[in-house]
Design a protein that fits this description.
Number of domains: 2
Shape: globular
Mean pLDDT: 87
Structural class: mainly alpha
Low-confidence stretches: 356-387
Radius of gyration: 22 Å
Largest sheet: 2 strands, parallel
């Protein structure tokens, strides 16, 4: 596997960091330990606890149980977007134990904060959209998210079948992926390092608590079919929401996917790489920004992952202006649906078989078409030529 190094900065990142520093100095705001974040966390945790209590102890009909299970899935996603994500990045508080506690909410919900920190913080945030290094764009055989990943014949329908399969990802994490990652630790360049006894305690304890909450306790009051059914509904809602939101930031028409071969001689500046591979969406929607933990401001998050997400709307204007001043592209979708449409186009593009012969280019379409649409047009034109 190629060793990836990023080039020296060209002044853009230094200027941006200076402007962000001046922003906090002039406003007197803290980068972390935000009262708004504490209140928000309390609201989300009450939402989760109340929904779980109603589902397990009060639901007496299938319609009510399904509705509460879906609501619980949304609450779990909100915990992941807001509390766990900030804690995992050390952006919740300047106190390490508070960040650790916030990050460990993932363990209570069936994931592993240790594995997430390794894959997300260590790999995804460093090697964003680089196939073979960024685990977040690796769907294995079921999907192709990068032009540098192998194509399978069934991928041509991935723009249809992947959406419901996104809902299965939490089940895959909880029952297979975490255990497989733990079993393979210390093997390979990007595998987990050896773990301390405290790490094992967190991993095992989290799994025990999760399976108790998800299955052992509900089975005391409901039939196995009801418990499994509600678990599947909760996981599906959680998985689809989490997956789609994260995909809109990177696996879209406007994001770049650097070729692994180009990394032999090093990359450009790290900040420029983050801006080339990351896209914001729906920046003016306050309700969505609150629910998603600021993850619609993914550009700002990738550049400043240790700043609490409640500040991202303010930082966004600074980042965009600095990009404009330095001639660095800033990429954003106006709405959530625009991002979804772009992800759909990218899935459809990546599902097409690669063309061995040089494609027929259609330059007149470039100003009005996205990368995915151009690629599809080239594939169709190539097919006509071969005929």
């Amino acid at each position: 596997m190629n060793r990836i190094t990023f080039g020296a900065g060209d002044g853009f990142h230094s200027l941006l960091r200076a402007r962000v520093h001046d922003h906090f100095e002039s406003t007197g705001q803290e980068r972390r330990d935000s009262l708004a974040m504490v209140v928000k966390s309390a609201v989300i945790l009450v939402w989760f606890a109340l929904t779980y209590w109603l589902l397990v102890f009060q639901a007496s009909s299938w319609p009510a149980a399904v509705a509460l299970a879906a609501c619980l899935g949304l609450a779990i996603a909100a915990i992941g977007f807001n509390i766990q994500h900030d804690g995992g990045h050390g952006a919740y508080s300047r106190h390490r134990w508070i960040n650790k506690a916030a990050a460990m909410t993932l363990d209570l919900l069936g994931g592993s904060s240790l594995i997430w920190a390794h894959k997300h913080n260590g790999l995804h945030h460093t090697f964003t959209n680089i196939s073979g290094h960024d685990d977040d764009i690796n769907l294995g055989l079921i999907g192709r998210l990068s032009p540098h990943q192998p194509h399978r014949w069934w991928h041509r329908w991935q723009h249809v079948y992947l959406w419901p399969l996104y809902g299965m990802l939490p089940i895959k994490w909880q029952f297979f992926d975490d255990f497989a990652d733990m079993a393979s630790r210390g093997r390979g360049d990007h595998s987990l390092p050896p773990l301390a006894p405290a790490d094992w305690l967190v991993f095992v304890g989290g799994k025990v608590i999760f399976f108790s909450l998800a299955f052992a306790l509900p089975l005391q009051f409901h039939s196995p079919a009801a418990v499994i059914g509600c678990y599947v509904v909760t996981a599906m809602v959680q998985g689809i929401v989490l997956s789609v939101v994260f995909q809109l930031a990177h696996c879209v028409d406007e994001a770049d996917f650097p070729a692994a071969a180009a990394t032999n001689s090093g990359m450009g500046p790290w900040a420029d790489h983050q801006l080339a591979t990351t896209v914001d969406f729906s920046r003016s929607n306050r309700v969505l920004s609150w629910l998603l933990g600021g993850l619609n401001f993914q550009v700002e998050h990738h550049l400043f992952p240790r700043i609490c997400h409640v500040h991202y709307p303010q930082l966004s204007a600074i980042v965009e202006q600095t990009c404009r001043d330095c001639g660095v592209p800033f990429r954003s979708h106006r709405s959530f649906l625009a991002g979804v449409a772009s992800h759909y186009r990218w899935l459809r593009c990546m599902g097409q078989p690669p063309v061995a012969a040089a494609p027929v280019h259609v330059p007149v379409l470039l100003p009005v078409m996205g990368k995915a649409e151009v690629a599809i047009a080239e594939l169709e034109a190539s097919a006509l030529v071969r005929r």
